[in-house]
Amino acid sequence: MVLDHYNPPFHTHKKPKNLSLKNASTIRIYMLKFSKVFLVIIFQLVIIHYIYQSPSKPSSSSSIHQDTTQQILGPKSNDRCKHGTVYVYNLPAKFNQDLLDHCANLDPWHSRCKAVTNHGLGPMAAGLSNVVPENLSPAWYWTDMFAGEVLYHSRMLRHACRTTESETATAFYIPFYAGLAVGRYLFTNYSAQDRDASCAELLHWVSDQPPWRRSRGADHFIMLGRMTWDFRRSRDADWGSGFIYMPQMKHVLRLGVERDPWDPLEVSVPYPTGFHPRSDWELVQWMEYVRTVNRTNRFTFVGGKRQMKGDFRTILQEHCRDESGSCRVVDCSGTRCYDGTSEILEAFLASDFCLQPRGDAHTRRSTFDCMLAGSIPVFFWKRSIHNQYEWFLGDEPGRFSIFIDRRAVRNGTTSIRTVLESFSRDEVRRKREKLISLMPKFVYTSGQDGTAKDAFDFAIDGVLRRLHKRG
Ligand SMILES: *[C@@H]1O[C@H](CO)[C@@H](O)[C@H](O)[C@H]1NC(C)=O
Ligand SMILES: *[C@@H]1O[C@H](CO)[C@@H](O)[C@H](O)[C@H]1NC(C)=O
Ligand SMILES: *[C@@H]1O[C@H](CO)[C@@H](O)[C@H](O)[C@H]1NC(C)=O
User: Fold this and answer.
1) What's the CATH fold of domain 292-442?
2) Domain coordinates in residue numbering, the chain
3) Looking at residues 13-41, what average pLDDT do you find?
């Protein structure tokens, strides 16, 4: 974007310097003869030198970026590990690595190999160069919404507060890819035993480890890449695995993309989105881009209809089509919106608001895609945002989102367009600024050294704070 501005040609002040060294004697003659003219030239050279001095050196140029990023992201804290360290179990490969090695068989219909590639970031995104600033397009991936457990494991192994000494650790991380292990058994005709087998085996293994025996798992944590409901089967005939209800799980802290709001041992963490900045400067550039991008639609609805009677998403899609002057539809019926289309990002970037009905669960990855694009989410279920993501988004969702009563939409007494158009430019700007200020906390960076804390770091800080208090 503005990078070129900071990188004027290198030679601007070097050439004159050379001249004055090599041709010193000639210059002295000129100086006597044309002293006035020369003084003017010198003066100009000094000015040029002064203007270009700092930006023309790469190191100072990045220090300008540093100043800007520091202003926006805050100073780097040096309080790392003040709440202790994390021990990462080295699990038998069948609980993690083998699942990646057999990624083609993780789900009954598709290969999951792309989803788990690049340490969970997924394949690099192509086709975004017209949608995002060109120098940021390499920071985009087609990240799978359920790849968090791979991403967290990879990041945890590189975390500054990881320890290999289990005697001194505050927290114990179990890098079991429960969502991947269970995913293939969720949908088709598998038995409850099939859906529980690897979870039971894992707990059998871990509960035999000395750190576990000391605390009965109370200082242990795990990251679940899928919603908690996929692990809460209480009767054989119901959905999901029974992992969380297994007795050994009773004290284990769980991070996951949607928590059970009534379970104090669960913490929800942001769904991974496609943007993984490689530096603080890239993140800051993106924040500035969504602040200034030209939004031509009041709102957008990205989603698919379902063939159910009274399906709320169908109502929203139809409303959006009826109000095509201010709403933009991206129809995701069928499999059209599987990772790999730029149309969604484009729609969010072009809209002030985005409609976020519940999906199969109350929360959606789409909410984070929307917020990342600086578009204000409109919720219809309180449970889509209340008591979720508080470590990252705070506990006042009204500051960055809108709530509309779905019953009033259904019975026709409320028009979404009318509600959204009643917000002034200033109110929209305030909510968007709030979203932008939260971005560093809900984005997952690529995890390079030296970047500011991201969603993953805030999650681990939170775990350590909590387990430190306990100890
Ligand atoms: C599902 O599995 C059960 C028991 O294995 C079997 O009786 C039933 O016919 C299967 N149903 C389908 C639709 O395959
Ligand atoms: C924003 O979009 C509108 C409508 O497409 C266009 O008329 C306007 O010139 C654009 N403004 C900028 C700054 O690009
Ligand atoms: C429509 O729904 C809203 C919200 O539940 C309710 O307050 C209102 O009375 C309803 N109006 C009619 C005409 O049913």
Assistant:
1) Rossmann fold (3.40.50)
2) 3-66, 86-272+452-470, 292-442
3) 44
- Which residue's alpha carbon is nearest to atom 14 within ligand 2? 294
Q: Pull the structure tokens for residue 109.
A: 């219909």
Name the phi and psi angles at 444, rounded to 5.
-100, 115
pLDDT at 412 over 90: yes
Instruction: Give dist(CA 58, CA 344) in Å, integer.
Output: 36
Measured in degrees and rounded to the nearest 5, phi and psi for residue 222 equal -145, 155
Best substitution site from 411, 415, 416 to test ligand 3's pocket, by max atoms within 8 Å of Cβ?
A: 411
Ligand 2: residues whose CB is within 6 Å? 294, 296
- Taking the CA of residue 290 as centre, how many other CA atoms within 13 Å lie in the half-sphere pointing to its CB? 33
pLDDT at 20 over 60: no
Nearest to 87, CA basis, from 470, 469, 463, 449:
463
pLDDT band at 78 (very low <50, low <70, confident <90, very high): low
Segment among 32-46, 347-361, 403-417 with least mean pLDDT = 32-46
Question: What's the confidence (pLDDT) of residue 15?
Answer: 34
pTM for the full model? Answer: 0.84
- pLDDT score at 219: 97
DSSP symbols for 335-366? TTTSS--SHHHHHHHTEEEEEE---SSS--HH
295 alpha carbon, closest ligand = 2
Distance CA 78, CA 84 (A): 14
pLDDT at 451: 83
pLDDT value at 404 more than 90:
yes
Best residue for ligand 3 mutational test, from 413, 414, 416, 419 (most atoms within 8 Å of Cβ): 413
Token duo for residue 116: 């788990």
With b meaning 16 or more CB within 10 Å and e meaning fewer, what string describes 284-307? bbbbbbbeebebebbbbbbbbbee
Phi-psi region of 374 (alpha: psi -120 to 50; beta: other; left: phi over 0): left
Atom of ligand 3 nearest to the CA of 408: 2
Cβ-contact 107, 184 below 8 angstroms: yes
